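Please fill in the sequence for the structure shown.

STRUCTURE ENCODING:
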């Protein structure tokens, strides 16, 4: 059984939005034992969308579209699907009424174009959208399946991971492909491969590495007749990886390093606060993106200028003048100050130059200092990162979280 993915939206072709949903959908298809043979992107043009869908239907058993289900005139996916399947659109009165109630409850005038979302091909059933007004579509006709998903992440994810994946698993029937991702930090991809090379020779399950920014992942994949049987094949391999990698293994599947670190803090009954210069709040944002982070994350200070470091953290003007804001002594002082002022168990600071030019003191682009202040003193790590501004900022926050985690594991 094969599948194709069609992403719809002129904004994708113009480079205004990066298509992250198609790779996600491809992974879901693979986990369900369905091979994705082609991917296409088409703009908001009805004729071109119909032609793209017809070509996909001529080659694949399953076609998944992403985007173009909204209420405006350029949201043409449902129309294109109906034409490509030689079908017609029909209104679903229950959805029309639901839309009217939705706008009435919010005291927002509803324009008639919003009712476009209540239409579907006659061969389709609608997929509930818990976070939006545009239902997804599951169309079955002439031995083909077309699944239409909305573009916004908060709407796409629940549908793709929930009812769509369940349908695809049932559709495939006799065999599924199931994976577990092992997340690793502190060692590079080549080192990881050397450490686990004996496990990479297996045929079922398989072990394959792939690099991520500032960390490495291993995907353990098994083919089996059920999810339970696949898990039974995967778990012993994961146990071996855990033994080999030790504390470098920090989590599985969707777990992030910040989530794993917060879990350690909560388990220990400890807290953390941050003082950020170069990252401008990025480190705190990573922590607070985790639900329940208030159990361990106290807060922080964005001290981007010399004046802010003096006023908000009480950093000595003499220290700043002697060493410059991008320096080990200042990073240490920042971490200790935020810890003292918030009462947190741990204080974490980041100071550096993200570029694109050298700073006022001549400190080179990428030079970064990360300090961790805790009950047993303060440590500081110096790094020289390469890449664009966003890369350097992301790597600095990754280093800060990783350093804190290692201190907790000590």
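FILLED IN BY: designer on duty
SEQUENCE:
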């Amino acid at each position: 059984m094969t599948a194709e993915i069609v992403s719809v939206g002129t904004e994708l072709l113009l480079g205004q939005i990066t298509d992250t949903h198609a790779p996600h959908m491809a992974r879901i298809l693979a986990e369900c034992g369905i091979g994705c043979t082609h991917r296409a992107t088409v703009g908001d043009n009805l004729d071109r969308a119909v032609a793209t869908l017809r070509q996909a239907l001529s080659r694949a058993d399953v076609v998944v579209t992403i985007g173009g289900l909204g209420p405006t005139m350029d949201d043409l996916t449902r129309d294109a699907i109906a034409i490509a399947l030689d079908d017609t659109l029909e209104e679903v009165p229950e959805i029309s009424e639901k839309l009217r109630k939705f706008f009435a409850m919010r005291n927002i005038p509803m324009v008639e174009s919003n009712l476009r979302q209540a239409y579907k091909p006659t061969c389709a059933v609608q997929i509930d959208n818990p976070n939006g007004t545009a239902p997804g579509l599951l169309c079955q006709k002439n031995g083909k399946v077309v699944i239409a998903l909305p573009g916004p992440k908060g709407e796409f994810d629940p549908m793709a991971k929930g009812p769509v994946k369940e349908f695809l698993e049932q559709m495939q029937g006799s065999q599924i492909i199931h994976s577990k991702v092992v997340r690793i930090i502190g060692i590079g991809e080549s080192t990881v491969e050397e450490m686990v090379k004996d496990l990479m020779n297996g045929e079922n399950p398989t072990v394959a590495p792939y690099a991520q920014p500032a960390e490495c992942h291993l995907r353990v994949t098994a083919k089996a007749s059920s999810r339970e049987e696949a898990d039974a094949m995967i778990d012993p391999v994961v146990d071996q990886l855990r033994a080999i990698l030790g504390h470098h293994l920090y989590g599985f599947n969707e777990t992030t390093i910040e989530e794993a670190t917060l879990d350690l803090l909560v388990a220990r009954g400890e807290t953390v606060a941050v003082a950020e210069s170069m990252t401008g709040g990025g480190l705190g944002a990573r922590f607070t993106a985790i639900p329940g982070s208030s159990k361990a994350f106290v807060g922080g200070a964005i001290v981007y200028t010399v004046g802010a470091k003096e006023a908000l953290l009480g950093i000595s003007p003499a220290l700043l003048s002697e060493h410059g804001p991008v320096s080990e002594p200042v990073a240490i002082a920042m971490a200790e100050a935020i810890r003292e002022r918030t009462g947190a168990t741990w204080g974490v600071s980041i100071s550096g130059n993200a570029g694109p030019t050298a700073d006022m003191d001549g400190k080179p682009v990428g030079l970064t200092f990360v300090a961790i202040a805790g009950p047993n003193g303060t440590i500081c790590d110096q790094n020289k990162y390469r890449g664009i501004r966003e890369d350097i900022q992301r790597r600095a926050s990754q280093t800060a979280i990783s350093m804190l985690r290692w201190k907790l594991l000590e």
